[in-house]
Write a structure and sequence with these properties.
The complex is a heterodimer of chains A (about 150) and B (about 575). The longest helix of chain A is centred in the first third of the chain and has 6 residues. By secondary structure, chain A is mainly beta. The radius of gyration of chain A is 14 Å and the shape is globular. Chain B contains 15 helices and 28 strands. Chain B is globular, with a radius of gyration of 25 Å. Classes of the chains: A mainly beta (about 150), B alpha/beta (about 575). Chains A and B meet through strand 5 of A and strand 24 of B.
């Protein structure tokens, strides 16, 4: 599947054209991340396994961030009805993707639908600063309003 | 940094007069069952010398009274108070007990449970958030109504004993499911978010003064079998209340460990992600313990689906761990009719009725009786999301589950059955939304008073469910509190309603725009505090119905902690 180049790209909070972003890069969808959601664990889809380590795009909603300015935010398939960073007993949905931007940026698009481009990283990993555990990440990422 | 000193009289010089005590736990007017364990704690302001932090119980030194040494901790957790604690104590004889600490005085009412034991078994059904209007709506949908008369009685209504239960906590007049369940399972009132503890000033949520729960007491005192059965995450407040001690109900990983410590014979619900080792994709644990494997190693049969659960029952399992979803088990409307929610991912989740059947098969093998807690937990969750139809269908499911229990109890008449909400929601049946009325918006469609004709749901199936909620004259079960949201008075056929979504900045919520495009939708300005994202609980009393030995103790108005006292008395749990 291909995707057209988003009109406005935000890199490190600055509107920019990404040299790395081009026609034809792989588009991931939230409903294609896992092939199994069993009570004893989840399994990545074959597509996620194949694309691990390569640049991909995915569209979702930017969750309200931990800090107003960060290189880190959570992407969810639907707008969040909870604010897990605000409430201690609110849980993230199971199928989130954690986004690590290339640079620290003001996360002004919280709540909005965004398309993110970055290198797909898979497997359980704890953020050294926040302790946030994620299964899927986009590294060196940039995003634009979708 | 705190200074830990084992209390020995005269160890520190008395420098000033006796210090004013700040708080004594258990709190004033606590009802305490003889022989039930609790942590005794007194918090003094500041950092008094130990000798000035004088405490007496019934005029005696606490260590002598309880037969156990206490610990004095100055500036506990580095805070501006000091504490005197004796953990895991109990009082063997009934009567009023006066506690004095400086100028502060509290009195406890210690009660015994006279022989003979009245009930062999107790089944405690919790309709989470179950309010009067949920019952009325469930009765209309599942029994029908004509000329003002119902086509039949709900199982939860058709019980001889009844009481009005008030639910306030020690901190507020509107409580949550943790504190309210804790009142039922420990007999002590505590505060919002707390399970099996008093809310002291400890920083660590697991250090607050504990009170023993029904899950622990019935096992320890009488060797009874214990079952904890729900359709929510098993770590959620209501099921957790059977075994847990934490100031913070969201300590899910710790709560799983508490289940492991108590080891109820039957454990069923959702929320498997906190049972998986951290390295398993999807796990929410922070350690490598696989609690499913640990329970299996301890002789439990594990069931991940309804089929496996039924098979385990047939095969004669004596201990069962059933986890049927990574999150909450889907509600009746989604599982049986709409196939939405997570039904696609988890197509073989059990109905609460089958969970109760299998639980009774297993627990009734205990010759010492059993204590079974069954929760229909999404009545509450669907009310929070302003999803009336889903809340009503799960009330009907509760009714069906109670029917199974009543059939079981009819055999020997030695089982006390209790059905109760844990707190109320601000819900009311205000009329019907009638598509025959002119206009498009909810106010135009709403028929009130004489225009509130009986809804036209189809005749319910054998389980009491109409086969569709999408009819032209629908019940208007409305909610008194809500966030900013869009509303068109039609059922949510594509999945549970999401009324509001997180806003761009922390702690703000805005209407879910998806709902704003539904035909006839109107924008409702929220009437709750701005950091709220769902409908809220209310402080109304809830109804309790009961039957079986001991149920005659329920009558009139009773505070929620008295439900514990009735259970304890029916079982003879005291010394």
């Amino acid at each position: 599947m291909t995707v057209s180049l988003p009109r406005r790209l935000v890199l490190g909070g600055v509107l920019a054209t990404l040299p790395g972003l081009a026609w034809g890069r792989e588009m991931l969808r939230f409903d294609g991340l896992y092939k199994k959601y069993g009570v004893r664990g989840m399994e990545f889809s074959d597509r996620v396994r194949q694309l691990a380590g390569t640049p991909v795009d995915i569209t979702g909603y930017m969750a309200p961030p931990l800090k107003a300015e960060s290189n880190f935010f959570v992407l969810s398939s639907e707008p969040l009805s909870i604010c897990p960073f605000c409430e201690s007993d609110a849980d993230w949905p199971v199928d989130i993707v954690v986004i690590y931007l290339r640079h620290v940026a003001p996360l002004t698009s919280a709540g909005a639908r965004v398309t993110v481009s970055g290198r797909l990283d898979t497997g359980s990993w704890s953020d050294p600063d926040t302790g946030f555990v994620s299964l899927l990440r986009l590294m060196d990422a940039a995003y634009a309003l979708a | 940094m705190s200074l830990r000193v084992v209390l020995t009289v005269g160890m520190l010089a008395a420098a000033s007069a006796a210090t004013q005590a700040q708080t004594i736990y258990p709190l004033n007017r606590a009802d305490i069952l003889t022989g039930a364990k609790f942590d005794f704690k007194v918090e003094f302001p500041g950092a008094p010398a130990e000798a000035d932090a004088k405490v007496t119980i019934a005029g005696r030194d606490p260590a002598a009274f309880f037969g156990k040494p206490g610990t004095f901790v100055r500036n506990e957790d580095g805070q501006d108070y000091s504490s005197y604690v004796i953990r895991d104590v109990s009082i063997p004889t009934a009567g009023a007990v006066a506690v004095e600490a400086g100028a502060a005085k509290v009195s406890w009412d210690v009660y015994a449970t006279p022989a003979p034991r009245k009930a062999k078994n107790v089944i405690l059904f919790i309709g989470d958030g179950l309010s009067i209007a949920h019952r009325t709506a469930a009765r209309i949908l599942s029994k029908g109504i004509a000329e003002g008369k119902y086509g039949g009685e709900l199982e939860i209504d058709d019980m001889p004993a009844m009481a009005l239960i008030s639910t306030a906590g020690s901190d507020s007049i509107v409580t949550d499911s943790a504190n309210s369940m804790s009142a039922y399972t420990s007999g002590h009132k505590s505060c919002v978010n707390a399970l099996g503890v008093y809310c002291a000033r400890n920083k660590n949520t697991l250090d607050h003064p504990k009170v023993e729960t029904l899950g622990e007491l019935t096992k320890r005192r009488l060797g009874m079998a214990v079952g904890v059965v729900t359709n929510t995450e098993i770590e959620d407040a209501t099921p957790a209340g059977m075994v847990s001690h934490t100031r913070r109900r969201s300590d899910y990983n710790d709560i799983v460990e508490m289940f492991y410590k108590v080891k109820p014979d039957v454990i069923m619900g959702g929320g498997s992600v906190n049972w998986l080792a951290k390295s398993t994709p999807g796990s929410r644990r922070t350690d490598e313990r696989d609690y499913i494997k640990m329970f299996e190693a301890d002789g439990y049969t594990f069931a991940g689906t309804s089929t496996e659960m039924l098979a385990a029952g047939k095969a004669g399992a004596r201990k069962l761990l059933g986890l049927f979803n990574t999150g909450n088990v889907d509600g009746a409307l989604d599982r049986m009719f709409l196939k939405k929610g997570t039904v696609g991912r988890f197509p073989d989740q059990p109905d609460l009725t089958d969970q109760v059947r299998v639980s009774l098969d297993i627990l009734s093998k205990s010759d010492k009786g059993f204590m079974l807690m069954v929760e229909s937990g999404r009545i509450d969750k669907y009310s929070h999301s302003l999803d009336a139809e889903r809340a009503i269908y799960d009330t009907i499911m509760l009714d069906n589950a109670v029917k199974v229990a009543k059939q079981f109890a009819a055999k020997d008449n030695d089982t006390l059955i209790i059905v109760v909400g844990d707190h109320a929601h601000p819900v009311s049946v205000i009329g019907v939304y009638d598509d025959e009325r002119p206009g498009q918006t909810p106010r135009e469609k709403l028929g009130v008073y004489a225009d509130a004709k009986a809804p036209n749901y189809s005749k319910p199936n054998a389980d009491g469910y109409p086969d569709s909620v999408d009819v032209s004259r629908r019940i208007a079960l409305n909610f008194g509190t809500f966030p900013d949201n869009c509303f068109n008075a039609k059922p949510y056929l594509d999945g549970e309603n999401v009324p509001a979504v997180a806003g761009a900045t922390a702690n703000t919520f805005v209407a879910n725009e998806k709902n704003c495009t539904r035909p006839g939708s109107v924008r409702m300005t929220g009437n709750i505090p701005f950091d709220g994202n769902t409908e809220t609980h209310s402080g109304d009393d809830v109804l309790l119905t009961a039957m079986g030995p001991g149920s005659d103790m329920f009558h009139g108005h009773m505070p929620n902690v008295r439900v514990f006292k009735v259970i304890a008395t029916a079982l003879g749990l005291g010394e």
